[in-house]
Amino acid sequence: MSSSDRTCCGVVEEARIRAHDRRANKPQPWIVLKLAVGLTLALIAYTSYVYVGIFCKDMIVKNESALGSLTTGIVFLVVFCFLLLMVLWSYFAVVTTSPGYPAEFIEKTVLERPQTPPALEQQPATVSDTRGMSFELMPPAADLSNHAPALSNSGSTIPVIPPTVPAATKQAKAFHYQGSTPGEAHIANVPAGPESLHVPGAVPHSTHENFHNPNLDASSMFLRRPSTTPILAPEYRFCTKDKIIKPPRTHHCRACGTCVLKYDHHCPWVGHCVGAYNHKFFVNFVQWASILSFWMFATVLGLNIKSRSRSPAPAINPQHIVLLALTALFGLFCFLMFLTQVQLIMLNQTTVESLAFRSMQEREQDNLAHMYHWYACGAKKRARKRWDKEWGRIGKEGNLWWLGSRRANWESVMGKNVWWWFLPVGRGLEDGVNFPTNPRFDKLGRWRRRREWPSDLQ
User: Fold this and answer.
1) What's residue 172's pLDDT?
2) How many angstroms separate the CA atoms of 44 and 321, rounded?
3) How much is the pTM?
């Protein structure tokens, strides 16, 4: 921008964008990451003081303001101590256990950046397109001859170079980069092998006036077209920040400033990310935290209500009201988080991956709204069934990491030992680096039609 073209608003906007980019590319300070941990411990300490030092103590020492008997106070105190121990134990486990940082054991990779071929510039990608970009129209430019082992798996697991491989195999690698998304390299020109799935070309978009044209079949205008992006190709897993080829399901966390194995989400309450190695402990923590919160809320509220029937009724302690408010909010938050995590684990999805499935479902909802009138619920349901018959369900057969059953998905994170499901010990069946893949996908991670599945799955 020349000096004559600059305006006050333009300079301010440019400075704002630059400041935003600097903050986005810089990890948060250590004190900021751990601040919420101190707040969580302070919350636990205060609620424990009110429950033990005021609520239970009044009953045990038989004060006039006691809301129950001596036996009630002792029983409530014992139960509370057990639940508090489980909360602190699981919280300590999730805070002190690293989620897994691949940059610590994966060698950095050199990435070449040639100019973008003109063919790519003629294919704009739109987020609202259910089909994604056509794979066949992407010109081959990346040389994957040196990375055959990474693409030659049988569809069962995704091999990743471990930190202890021989030195002969740990040589600098070079790829051709095309794309500009911050933090992730999106390289569209990956050559398809002879075994790759043939995906039909792009379907031209219909104009708005054709949506309700009686001479046009709506099902021929809108079809389920999953993304044809080869997400398991090494180029698509390159991180421009850490300069590594990420293992599958790994994502770069801006807050932590590094890639995280099987990234679920960044949780400020534990001071870092929830990933491959501490996911189980996070589930244990929200499980026991919700139980403890509801126990405190129910016992304090119940005895306060019961004391209203006595004459004269004791005065309500203001700290009991504060305790009820805190435990209700914290318990509801942890309980909803626990239910969400249980649902995602049984589907073998992370929080980030679930957003992609939700986005695809929302785009299909938009397509159905264009295909049929709002009151044609039966027609929409039949269209979904046709799509599911052709492809399978989005969250299950259409999930690259679906292991075949909810029990297998659950055990992959929580372990086979039933006691481990409740105690913050042990670990799941995953190593955070290699993951079995759904045989309904090809070797590059692209969803295939039902007729192209293995015969025993059709």
Assistant:
1) 39
2) 16
3) 0.73
